[in-house]
């Protein structure tokens, strides 16, 4: 089974569920209660729009338990001092990896939380999740030429530019070492 929660130093990454996505789309007053976190005023950010939420919900509904963890993820800033646990961004996979182990990720951070390294940490958490599945061997991400912060986040996580797509977006790729292989390599060192 794929882990549905991942921790980074400042973030808790939580896999989207049908209940969370349904609340986010149709009962937004219940969404923060189910999530157990405060919401930023400008939610949802960037790529995490109604279209993405609807897609994730459709995929989770069609795929059942085997789809869990392969679509949207919520990035929650851990509570610290007087600051409560807060939803700061979203990201995730666009589905399970293909037969060659290739999966695509996307990420967005709410405007008030940008510039603090949280996007870099969010992508690092998604890399950790990809490795933990043991199924992902390569990750791809896309961004626009104008989105320099996203390019910086990807580069900071070891992604390399690999050209452009037919629609003009930049393509970035990165190899993933499955967690079991990494553990075997460390044990043999």
Provide a quick synopsis of the model.
The protein has 189 residues and is α+β, with helices and mostly antiparallel strands. It contains 6 helices and 8 strands; from the N terminus they run ββαααβββαβαββα.
Descriptive report:
By secondary structure, the chain is of the alpha+beta class. It has a single domain, classed as Aminopeptidase (3-Layer(aba) Sandwich). The protein has 6 helices and 8 strands; from the N terminus they run ββαααβββαβαββα. Strands 1-2-3-4-5-6-8-7 form an 8-stranded mixed sheet. Strand 3 (72-77) and strand 4 (86-93) form a beta hairpin. The chain is globular. It comes from Hymenobacter lapidarius.
Q: Give the distance, in angstroms, between the N- and C-terminal Cα atoms.
A: 28 Å
So what's the CATH class? Alpha Beta
Shape: globular
Strand content: 15-25%
- Uncertain segments: 183-187
Q: Main sheet?
A: 8 strands, mixed
**How are the strands of the largest sheet arranged?**
1-2-3-4-5-6-8-7
Under the CATH scheme, which architecture would be assigned? 3-Layer(aba) Sandwich
Note the total helix count.
6
- Give helix and strand order, one letter per element, not per position: EEHHHEEEHEHEEH
CATH topology, which one?
A: Aminopeptidase
| C-alpha-based Rg, rounded | 16 Å
Which properties best describe this structure?
alpha+beta; acyltransferase activity, transferring groups other than amino-acyl groups; 189 residues; GNAT_dom; Acyl_CoA_acyltransferase; 8-stranded mixed β-sheet; N-acetyltransferase domain-containing protein
């Amino acid at each position: 089974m794929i882990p549905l929660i991942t921790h980074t130093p400042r973030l808790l990454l939580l896999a989207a569920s049908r209940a969370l996505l349904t609340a986010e789309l149709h009962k937004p007053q219940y969404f923060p209660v189910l999530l157990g976190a405060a919401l930023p005023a400008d939610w949802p950010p960037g790529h995490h729009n109604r279209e993405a939420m609807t897609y994730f919900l459709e995929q989770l509904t069609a795929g059942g338990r085997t789809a869990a963890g392969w679509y949207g993820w919520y990035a929650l800033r851990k509570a610290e001092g007087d600051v409560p646990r807060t939803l700061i961004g979203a990201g995730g996979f666009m589905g399970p990896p293909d037969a060659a182990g290739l999966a695509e990720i996307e990420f967005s951070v709410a405007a008030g939380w940008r510039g603090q390294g949280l996007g870099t940490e969010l992508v690092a958490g998604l890399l950790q999740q990809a490795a933990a599945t043991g199924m992902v061997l390569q990750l791809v991400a896309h961004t626009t030429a104008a989105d320099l912060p996203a390019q910086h986040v990807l580069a900071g996580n070891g992604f390399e530019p690999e050209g452009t797509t037919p629609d003009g977006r930049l393509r970035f790729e990165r190899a993933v070492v499955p967690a079991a292989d990494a553990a075997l390599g460390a044990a043999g060192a």
